[in-house]
Amino acid sequence: MLRRRWAAVALTAIAIGAAAPPAGPAVAATNRDRVASGDAASSGHRATSVMVTPSRDIAAGTAPTAEVTAIFGPDNRVPVRTTTTYPASATVLLTFDGGQCTGFMISERTVATAGHCLHTGGRTGTWRTNIVAYPGYDGTTAPFGACTAVQLTVPQSWMTGPVNYPGPPDPAYDYGAARLNCTIGTRTGWLGLGYTTQRLTGSCTTTQGYPAGRPGQWASNDFIRAEDANALYVQHAFTSGLEGSPLYYTPNPDDWCPTLPPLVIPCPCPPPPPDPCMCPAPFATALGILTSGPYDSGPGRTNNIALRITQPVINNLMQWR
What we know:
Thrombin, subunit H
């Protein structure tokens, strides 16, 4: 087993009493000029620690602006009308000073998301501050309430950047977890985590999250257009705020979809009581995390990019839960 050092950010807990998020969170700026990555070195998934203190209580933020838009053909996103049912209930609006992202519950108190939603990346990057999670936010209210992040964790290589500093951080490590000051996941449920060493190209997928330019939660269906060791390339509509959205197999896909490769699921999704059928595998199992619009060359030039969940990624997220 790999020896790991954790990048833990201890935050002062903030008592949350509001049922709705602050009005108009702004956009999390994604680094659009990231380098392509080869296989992620196992040591790159280690992490370091830094302590920060929130500057104030929950931030009101500023009006959202859709800074990043990557939509291929018709925009097939549909609003999620009922966010109190699974897996919409486990999909999380994350707000922080100056921005917003999407995340998804992976335990009763932990949210997984894109790494740049927690730390801006690279040696000169900074930690996000005043992160608040709103599972199942419907555009008006948060039916499960809200929780504050008390610990942030990202891989060391997301913070240190590439060997040829001052280049951009490696997108193979653009993931992380926020530990909350409450056990809200016992009410919302949480997604499982799965990976496969088989080819995923052609597999039908669904993602849902919180675009900055639209109210509430939205979902879309597509299929995996290409893949490499660290990324899945899709044409799900992508705009700012959707960073950190989970990517999972589409339930009951159309007949044209190929047979879905089985996933290794070391971290199954336990449902909230009393319904034992709320988290049917593999359709509640995240196999990717949406991280950016098109960039660089190759399949990333003409597709949106999801970080591929691999065994090292799962190993970290399971320990960060």
